Structure formats: structure tokens, C-alpha cells
Amino acid sequence: MAWWKAWIEQKGVSVKSSPHFNPDPDAETLYKAMKGIGTNEQAIIDVLTQRSNAQRQQIAKSFMVQFGKDLIETLKSELSAKFERLIITLMYTPYRYEAKELYDAMKGSRDDLCGFVDPGLALQDAQDLYAAGEKIRGTDEMKFISILCGRSATHLMRVFEDYEKIASKSIEDSIKSETHGSLEEAMLTVVKCTRNLHSYFAERLYYAMKGAGTHDGTLIRNIVSRSEIDLNLIKCRFKEMYGKTLSSTIMEDTSSDYKNALLNLVGSDP
């Protein structure tokens, strides 16, 4: 990996591995926090929001070895409501969490392993999208799905450029005119993620807390899933787009241990 890419990725991470990590004392701290009458929620927050996911898995193993109990089940028995949901989400491995969240979702395979773009293939995809929508009466929806869900982000960026030259309109405008309902929403989401991933997640977080009530599932999912990837960069984009920090918005919209745990994951303001 190039040094600059590693630096950018590290800069985006809000939750990093704890240096000089030892899972045994952390497991003991959690055990004491849940032993007897009452629960020390702050101790749980201090440990689990300040460790990487890989370190949390080691803590869970140590907890089982030392105390003969499953950490997730113990946490479930001691915590409740939104705070429980957030803490349990932190304990899932990324793959297990993704499988859980996407179980009912329709999702194609996205190959983002290679940044190389074949300009001939990109042009062909653009022509195929045009032929599947604007050029015919009706829409070949499967062609749209196969291309949007089966190509890398870098490839799709080139496809969108070529498409606009062919169709004299953006891919977003074509999707809006050719599709409707949940399919339209899904396709537009793919395009938005491809064009600006950080803006997309900033928008998701903003609307999760906008207006009456909070979409806690969306809030938890986006903060936890991006905390070890690019949440710091999303925070910067959030402030640029909405004129206030993500932390201040969380403070206004949530409360108690749930709020404190979210703020720990988000980290300091940009």
C-alpha cells in the first residue's frame, strides 16, 4: 500500500487499536462492571468504545476463558434499549454484522479490489445503460442492476462520464425517469456512494437525527461501521454540508449512556 493511502486511511479512523493492549484486564473490568446489583455502564463504554473490533473479539475470548460466560449474552442481560443495541453492535465481527444487516437486502457483488479501469469496457457499459433505458420504450432493469452492482467505483465513475456524453443527461436523471420506487432509490444510492462516499454517509447521519425522533438503527449502523474506516472524514464533510458538527448533533438528539457511547466512537470535532 502506498504511504499516502495508508496515511489517508489512518486519518479517517476515529476508533483505533489501543496501544499496549491486553485483553485480560479489559475482560476483568467488564466482569466487575456487570457483577452484582447494578451495572457500571461508564466502565463498559470506556472499554468497548476505545478498542478496535479485533481487540473486542480478544476481550470476548478472554471473558469466556476467565469467567466461563459469553460476553455478548452477559451484556444483553445487563443492558437495555438503544444503549444495548449499540454495545452489542460493537461486539459483532464486521462480517457477522454485515450479514445481519444485509440479510433481507438485495445487494450485488462489487469488485473494488482493483483501481484499473478499462476505458473500452466503461464505454460499452455506458452504451449498454443507454440502450437499456433512454433508447428504448420501457427499461431493461436487470441491465442497470448488473452494471451498477457489478462494477468497481472507479470503473463506474468513468461509465457515468461516458454515459452523460452519450445521453446528454446524467445517469441520475435517467434513473429518475426510467425507474421508480425502491429500485430507483437503490440505484440512486449506488450512484451517490460512487460519486462521493463521505457526502453520502454524512447525509445518512444527518437525516437519521433530523426532525422528530431518531432513526437509531441508521445512526448506530453508520457510526459503528465507519468508525474504523473513515468516520473522521465523514465528520468533516458533515460540518461542511450542515454547518454544525456531528458531535453537537448527537448531543442534541440523544441522551444518557447511549449518547456518551456514540460520542466516544465519534471522537473529537474536526
Describe the fold and architecture.
Belongs to the annexin family. Ca(2+) binds at residues 209, 211, 213, 253. It comes from Neophocaena asiaeorientalis asiaeorientalis (Yangtze finless porpoise). GO terms for molecular function: calcium ion binding; calcium-dependent phospholipid binding; phosphatidylserine binding. This is Annexin. The chain contains 17 helices and no strands. It starts with a helix and ends with a helix. It has helices at residues 3-12, 23-34, 41-48, 53-67, 71-78, 81-91, 94-101, 119-132, 141-150, 153-167, 171-178, 181-195, 197-209, 216-226, 231-242, 246-253, 256-266. The protein folds into three domains: 19-96, Annexin (Annexin V, domain 1, Orthogonal Bundle); 110-195, Orthogonal Bundle (Annexin V, domain 1), CATH 1.10.220.10; 197-266, Annexin V, domain 1. The longest helix is centred in the first third of the chain and has 15 residues, at 53-67. Residues 1-8 and 104-115 have low confidence and may be disordered. Helix 2 (23-34) packs across helix 4, helix 5 (71-78) runs antiparallel to helix 6 and helix 8 (119-132) packs across helix 10 (153-167). The protein is mainly α and 270 residues long.
Structural class estimated from helices and strands: mainly alpha
Instruction: Kindly report how far apart the N and C termini lie.
Output: 26 Å
Number of E-state strands? 0
**Mean pLDDT across residues:** 86
Radius of gyration: 22 Å
Question: Number of helical segments?
Answer: 17
Give the second-level CATH assignment, the architecture of the largest domain: Orthogonal Bundle
In sequence order, what are the helices and strands, one letter per element?
HHHHHHHHHHHHHHHHH
What is the name of the CATH class of the largest domain?
Mainly Alpha
The CATH topology name of the largest domain reads: Annexin V, domain 1
Name the CATH superfamily assignment of the largest domain. Annexin
What portion of residues belong to β-strands? under 5%
Residues in helix, %:
over 70%
For this entry, what is the oligomeric state of its chains?
Answer: single chain
* Tally of distinct domains: 3
Report the principal-axis shape: elongated
Question: What kind of sheet is the major sheet?
Answer: none
Q: Any low-confidence stretches, pLDDT <50, length ≥5?
A: 1-8, 104-115
